[in-house]
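Long-time lurker. I teach an intro course on protein structure, and each term I like to show students one example going from raw sequence to a predicted 3D structure in token notation. This year I'd like something fresh instead of my usual example. Would anyone be willing to generate the tokens for the chain below so I can use it in lecture? Attribution to the forum is fine with me.
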Amino acid sequence: MHQTNCKIRYLVTIALCLILTLLGASSMSAQRRFEQRPQGKPVPAKLASLECTTTQSETDQRIRCRACLDGPAPDRGAVIGFTSSTQAALAPSSGSEKVRSGILGSGILGSGILASGTSPENCAQWNVSGVPFPVPQQDTVSATYGGVTKSFPVTVLPRALRSFSSYTGSYTGWWGSWIELTAPAPAGGFPVKVFSSEPSLTVPEILTVEAGETRYHYSFGAVPVPSSRSATVTVSAEFGGQKESKSAILELYPAQIIGIEVSQPQDLVNIPLGGADVPMKLRLSKAGGGMNVNLFYSGETGISGPRRIQIDGQATHGNPTEASFTVRLQPCPTEDPCTVTIEARGPPIGSEPNTVTRSFTLTRQ
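-- Reply from a regular --
Happy to contribute to a lecture. Here you go:
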């Protein structure tokens, strides 16, 4: 009986060991199968935030907006779409500072490309600016990516002056200017103040855009200047409780030397022994305004005269004028005829030389 019980316990022990072995193998196999299963794909990044540098914009003021994702951009980059609720209030501004960030390309404001691995903050930024508008504009800038849209409110303050531009005919001394408003002028007209940084440029104190008009054209002139210089003309107006201004830079030029002439051609014939004084003329494009002209002489016979002359006068803008001077000529020494040369050098016209050279022939009869 005792031996029978021992055999039974022995068989039970063996059976239990086999069961435990099988259970262990099954658990390890299940673990291996679990470990070998493919892992799930990473969760795609979504748009997390949109912020701009200000909630209130003045006309032409650049605003920088920044859109960020909640994770890294995918391998091929993330294209973030930007839009504006009022197309007139905010316009895309060129010249983004980050490569492949804030590139304008499609939509009202375009799309910003956030390159994979190039931005540790997972953010893209772009610029917008307010355009002139006669009344305040409530605008909403929005960014969309990964099915998520974020918005940022911006108020564009009103402006009356849309633009101010000027053009010139270089040497004439007359300028034309255009003032453009954002909307028609009200009843009674819209006054615009004018200021010039250069006293020689004559501008009116106030110009008035007539009621119902959006543009105003005005011509103004400059008194002659002795050398090239720049002038800044500024127009300003008060509107909506704010003062606004626009400026244009104009280049003022001195008179251009056109030519050198002898007053009486017969004075170059039969110069007597001992020489003769011969009146000459320096022709200019307009009044000299105190400009200095240097004179240089050379030739096959003796010639002398003033080394510098100052040209005064306030001739009508654009009309040629002249300055007189006298040279002393000697007769031809041996050869007949002979030549003399006069060179006149005035102040440069901008970056261009203002020089004329003329040769004259002396003869005997």
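Some talking points for your students: The radius of gyration is 43 Å. Residues 94-111 have pLDDT under 50 and may be disordered.
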